[in-house]
Structure prediction request, 269 residues.
Amino acid sequence: MSFDASAIGRAGEEQEYEVTDDALRAYAEATDDVPGGPVFAILPAWDAVARASRSVASDEVRPQVVHYEQDVFVHRPLAGGMRVRSSATPVALLGRPNGTSLITRTATRMEDGTLANEQYVAGFFRGAEAPPSVGERPPDHRLSSDEPPSAEISYRIAEDQTVRYAAASGDRFAIHLDDDFARSVGLPGRIVHGLCTMAFTGRAVLEAAGVDDPERISRLAVRFSAPVFPDDTLTTLIWDLGEGAYTFEATGRDGVTVVEDGRAELRDA
Prediction:
C-alpha cells in the first residue's frame, strides 16, 4: 500500500524549537523580505510535518510529492528568543483525478501552552492512487471576487533563490536543487519551494495594502497550481475585499497561473 489511512487523525510527538534572530533574518533574506513574516511559522513545525507525512505515505511514493496548499493562521507572531513546541496530525487523505493529497494540521504553542499559530499543509503525490478519501478537508480559501484586481505587483525570482531558501529553511528536497533529479520525477527542472513563492505573494499583498509590518498578517493561504522556476518573474494580482481581507493569485513564466485561491487577512495596527 502506498498510503496508510489508519494513521489519519493520529497526532505525532511535539517537536521543540528555539526561535532566533539569526534564523528570522536568514529566512527573510532567502525570500527577499523582512523578518517577521507569517511563512516563517513552518520552520518550528517542519520536522513534525515530515514525521506526519512519513506516517502515512510510503517511501515509494514520497519522491512524487509536491507542495499543493498552505494555510497559516497566526495567533501570535514568532520573535527571537521564543521557545515553542509544534505537533502535527495528518487529518485527511483525499483521492484526486491524477494523484492523492495528504492534509496535515499543525499547532505551534508557546512554553505556557498559548497557541502561536495553526497551519494546514497539503502535499500532492502525483500519479499515486489512494484508498477511499478519509478525514476532514481544510478550511476554504477560494478566491471570491469577479471584479478586476485592485493591484498588480511583480517581483523577480533570483537564479539562486532555491539555494538560499534551502539553506535558511532546511528544505533540501532535490526537486528544488538538482535539475537532473527534478527531471527524473517528471518536472522540467528544479522548481522554487512553494513556501518561498508564498512569502513573495504575502509581501505583494502587504505592498498593495500599504503596510510595512509583516506581523500584521493574521492569515495567509494559497494553492499552488503550477511550478515557479528560478529566474522567473512572479506577478501577484490582488483584490481588496475590505475590512483587512484580500484575495489574490499569481502568475509566472509565460503568464501561467502558479498560485490560485490566495487569501490574506490583516489584523488592525
User: Anything to note?
Assistant: The chain has one domain: 5-266. The CA atoms of residues 216 and 267 lie 5 Å apart. The longest strand covers residues 83-96.
